[in-house]
Amino acid sequence: MIIGIDIGSTITKAVSVEAGVVTRQVKTKAMDAVTSAAGAFGKMLIENNIGMKDIERIMITGAGAGKIPDTLFGISTENVGEITAIGIGGIFLSGRENIIISNVGTGTAIIEAHRNKIVHIGGSGVGGGTILGLSKKLLGMSNFNEIMALAESGNLATVDLLLGDIMNSDLSFLNKESTASNFAKMLDSAALADIALGIVNMVYQVIGMLSVFAARSRNIDTVIVTGNGGNNPIGVRILQIISEMYAIKFCHPDSAEYTTAIGAGLSGRNVQDIFL
Ligand SMILES: Nc1ncnc2c1ncn2[C@@H]1O[C@H](COP(=O)(O)OP(=O)(O)OP(=O)(O)O)[C@@H](O)[C@H]1O
Ligand SMILES: [Mg+2]
């Protein structure tokens, strides 16, 4: 059995891989890389009754991977470049030969993946961490699920300047409900729920449009959205609107948040990132 561990900037995930099949997934949150990796590894073993002798090796990736020693509890560890891990995970979960991957984590990385070539196209600092950071100051809230629940009842029209605010008709393929400028209206009467929705909307509109441009530039019509932000229900709805406007398909795998750990677990030894 191989354990793939992804030490993310916010959350650490671990998966077990047996004969090319992902058999288990766990996640944990800790302050530093070593505690995170050891904690996720321990949780995987204890919760699933796995013995140390069952583990062949540990494949480690993510922001904190460089801080992990060559062995963990006597089992050798291998470093996998994060871009490569996301690429392999995205190809595996999409079941496609070529795909654009938008990995929505704390920040967002956009990757073009083919079976034999993985390219880091770019990305944005706008991601899940942006939702948490802005919510802390603008809403006085730090719990992700509570922020999302609040945003569900929000009204964007009090926060965003919509096309209908400045035009009487549609503008090419944009309708009157389209955002002309995020947060540009910001009425004094806007409720906290409206601001919460404005934050989530801005983050996913940025991610959606970057994904569309990336996909079009590579002649690929499908984007797989991975990372913890891959299955955010409001995010999925916003990306669906963008999908219809720009004819780019977004897919949201169940194991989205484990994509990077899965890619690490499935990769060969000593895989490096490929930057072109
Ligand atoms: N229960 C939760 N607790 C904390 N963050 C959550 C939760 N649910 C969703 N999130 C969101 O997920 C984001 C982290 O996503 P993810 O775990 O994919 O990133 P990461 O791998 O830690 O970071 P990166 O890949 O950017 O280094 C947080 O910034 C937050 O917006
Ligand atoms: Mg990540």
Report on the structure:
The structure is a single chain. The chain contains 8 helices and 13 strands. The chain has 276 residues and is α/β, with parallel strands linked by helices. It has 2 domains: 2-79, 2-Layer Sandwich (Nucleotidyltransferase, domain 5), CATH 3.30.420; 86-155 and 191-256, Nucleotidyltransferase, domain 5, CATH 3.30.420. Strands 3-2-1-4-6-5 form a 6-stranded mixed beta sheet. A 5-stranded mixed beta sheet has the order 9-8-7-12-13, sandwiched between helices. The chain has a two-stranded antiparallel sheet with strand order 10-11. Strand 8 and strand 9 form a beta hairpin. Helix 3 (128-138) runs antiparallel to helix 6 (192-217) and helix 4 crosses helix 6. The longest helix is centred in the last third of the chain and has 26 residues, at 192-217. The chain binds adenosine-5'-triphosphate and magnesium ion (MG). Magnesium ion binds next to loops.
